[in-house]
Amino acid sequence: MLHTINKSPFSSDSFDTCIRFLQPGDPVLFIEDGVYAVQSGNRFSSAVGGMLHSNPVYALKPDLDARGVSGLTDGVETIDYDGFVDLVEAHQVNSWL
Amino acid sequence: MLHTINKSPFSSDSFDTCIRFLQPGDPVLFIEDGVYAVQSGNRFSSAVGGMLHSNPVYALKPDLDARGVSGLTDGVETIDYDGFVDLVEAHQVNSWL
Amino acid sequence: MKIGILLKEGPYNHQAADTAYRFVEAAIRKGHTVDAVFLYNDGVNNVTKMMDPPQDDRHIAARWDQLHKARGVEILACIAASKRRGICDEVLIEGGEITGLGTLTDIAIRNDRLLTFGD
Amino acid sequence: MKIGILLKEGPYNHQAADTAYRFVEAAIRKGHTVDAVFLYNDGVNNVTKMMDPPQDDRHIAARWDQLHKARGVEILACIAASKRRGICDEVLIEGGEITGLGTLTDIAIRNDRLLTFGD
Amino acid sequence: MENEHVKKIMHVMRHAPHGTIYSYEGLEMILIMAAYEQDLSVVFIGDGVYAIKKNQDTAGIGIKGFAKTFMALDGYDVEKLYVDRVSLDERGLSEEDLLVDVEVLDSSEIGALMNEQDVIIHH
Amino acid sequence: MENEHVKKIMHVMRHAPHGTIYSYEGLEMILIMAAYEQDLSVVFIGDGVYAIKKNQDTAGIGIKGFAKTFMALDGYDVEKLYVDRVSLDERGLSEEDLLVDVEVLDSSEIGALMNEQDVIIHH
After folding, report:
1. CATH number assigned to the domain covering C2-113
2. How many CA atoms lie within 13 A of C93 on its CB side?
3. Given this model, what pLDDT does residue E2 score?
4. What pLDDT was estimated at residue E5?
5. Which of D16, D24, D44, D78 is catalytic?
6. Which pTM does this prediction carry?
7. What is the full per-residue pLDDT of chain C (119 aa) written as tens digits?
8. Helix, strand, coil distribution of chain E in percent, nearest 5
9. F2 within a domain of the structure (yes/no)
10. F32 with A47: CB under 8 angstroms?
11. Other C-beta atoms within 10 Å of D33: how many?
12. In this structure, how many other beta carbons lie within 10 angstroms of the beta carbon of residue E118?
């Protein structure tokens, strides 16, 4: 199951909520304002780091670029819309709006 | 300055953010989904209790009733739309959307 | 007291339009003057006369229309926000008007309060 | 892979409509079939032809219209959600259609994936 | 053979009622989908649990209440109603505060159910 | 005498850019209000600070960028730009990450400024 998170972890509970239901091995993809979660050195970096121990973590590059988010937490992979499609081909999807 | 909060403290950061900027004596009014904050015995009850030491706290009764919120944190006053108007007459307003 | 209202969310999807309306009703009942309701962001979607909610539900656009006609409250939609979202003269309620952000500034200046409702 | 899309927020106010569109573009480019984009909640506001954004901005309704005409993707707005918000035949883009939630159920059943975009 | 096309569809209620329409329009969607004989489930997470809180009286806000319509789901053969235990706990709520019969589950149990689904829709 | 009608109007930027339009349409409002010679200020709080983050390139999402327009505020005599220190800190950002010259303030200082205002609008 692919989980997508599209809201900033600072202003919404989607990030914290999704984490609780995540099964080991499930890929997580951050899109839209969700990508702020993966910038290193912020309040959620350790949570993202913890997630990386058991789950592959992706962030949508066009959304990172649009927001000037760089210096990602180690282990987070960036993908473009094509990569998003590939993840959806490989998994059913759970979009945490 | 009257502060209004209209979002659930569980899903939005409006509650936590507003608290930081509140000046002693400023009234706080919870409306719409914001009223969930004032139910006693939830995760935000102690924060509301702390707020009550320095600020008058109100909740809009029609919104409480609509959501079945009862058993409010001690010290929270309920008002109706007329009371909302009275607070606005007495103060400038800062609506934390 | 003279009051202006800024409404930033669309009808039905958010309670903002309902709370704003109930507040305005109470303010007028208590003898205050409500000068205008200015619609911004998705708030402009409040004034399309094409909305057709279920019979047993409130008709939010008609309610604003009525507020203008019965109470003289100006119902104003920001033109830039309206154009983006498809609010135009063809769909506008009779009691509504499409205008610029300068009007909102005037409202902020000439009223004792400017209250925001949104999400 | 056959994909259905559920879009739950209106144009411009939220990025959902943009992300959904870019995803659909990429899926089609990669040889997948996008069956339909079903609009729900404020998502129905995506298909009003009355929108008139600034020249240098994208035209979200025209983009959906074009997606239907060029790629055969059905662009469907939920009738109950549409009526509440003033989306009706008079304002609907040519390539769009107003339909019931039963159609969404069919989309969920007949596609390999149903992806939601919203806020 | 018939079951070949039965899909597992989960509706996740995440929003409080009345402040936004997501919960109400979500319920409308569930009621329609119920007629299609798919394998439906409904999960209440986060503020979504407030949708089925007892004693909601919306007369004062002028918006139609719909909490009791959740009680009708049973009649539509939508019987898999789950509630997240943590969401109840942090809101100071218990099963007795809820209008409908639900199964209260731990996060990991709900997570496992999610992974069995063909379609998940958040409201 | 002229100053009698000058109002103190504060715009509070609370949303991240691009995910929603609030920040962009908020900026449009500020630019129009700037022509009216009122006492304007702009405060960036919470995700609002992201609106003025450096190096935003929106080409890949097909949405017009507007971060640089904040740099034009100075030319409109909107010079009171404040940023909440806690909001920067918890996002791992510092003043050097921001596109425009701002004054970084503590919450209590911003709270005191808020209490001087005639009008406060959140975006």
Report:
1. 3.40.1260.10
2. 26
3. 47
4. 76
5. D78
6. 0.98
7. 999 999 999 999 999 999 999 999 999 999 999 999 999 999 999 999 999 999 999 999 999 999 999 999 999 999 999 999 999 999 999 999 999 999 999 999 999 999 999 99
8. 45, 20, 35
9. no
10. no
11. 15
12. 18
pLDDT at residue number B84: 98
CB-closest option in A33, A42, A45 to F16:
A33
Would you mind telling me the total number of residues written for chain B in this entry?
97
Q: Determine what percent of chain F falls in helix, strand and coil, rounding each to the nearest 5.
A: 45, 20, 35
Q: Please indicate whether residue C78 is annotated as part of the active site.
A: yes
Q: Does A54 touch chain E (CB under 8 A)?
A: no
Q: For chain C, which residues make up each domain, given as ranges?
A: 2-113
As given in the structure block, the two tokens for residue A68 are: 């000037």
pLDDT in tens, A50-92: 999 999 999 999 999 999 999 999 999 999 999 999 999 999 9
Are B81 and C113 a contacting pair at CB < 8 A?
A: no
In terms of CA atoms, which chain C residue is nearest residue D60?
C84
Contact E56 B7 (CB under 8 A): no
For residue D6, the chain A residue with the least C-alpha distance is: A95
Which residues of chain F, if any, have pLDDT below 70? 1-4
Taking alpha carbons only, the member of E14, E86, E96 closest to residue E48 is E14
Instruction: Name beta bridge partners: E112.
Output: none
Judge contact between E48 and E23, C-beta under 8 A. Answer: yes
CB-based contact D118 E21, cutoff 8 Å = no
Domain range for E96 is: 8-122
Contact E18, E63 (CB under 8 A): yes
Q: How far is CA F74 from CA C77, F79, F80, F98, F116, in A?
A: 28, 5, 9, 15, 22
Whole-complex ipTM = 0.97
How many structural domains is chain E composed of? 1
Query: Which chains share 3+ C-beta pairs under 8 angstroms with E?
Result: A, B, C, D
**Residue F18: which CATH number?**
3.40.1260.10
Which pair of tokens denotes residue A95?
Answer: 């979009």
Q: Which of A66, C42, D42 has the alpha carbon at shortest distance from F25?
A: C42
Helix A14-21 to helix A45-54 angle (10° resolution) is 20
Interface check for B54 against chain A (CB to CB < 8 A): the answer is no
**Domain count of the fold of chain A:** 1
Beta strand extents in chain C (DSSP E only)? 2-7, 33-39, 74-78, 96-99, 113-117
Q: How many interchain CB pairs under 8 A, A with F?
A: 72
CB contact under 8 A, B82 and C116: no
Distance of CA B57 to the CA centre of its chain: 6
Q: What is the 3-state secondary structure (H, E, C) of E11-44?
A: EEECCCCCCECHHHHHHHHHHHHHHHCCEEEEEE
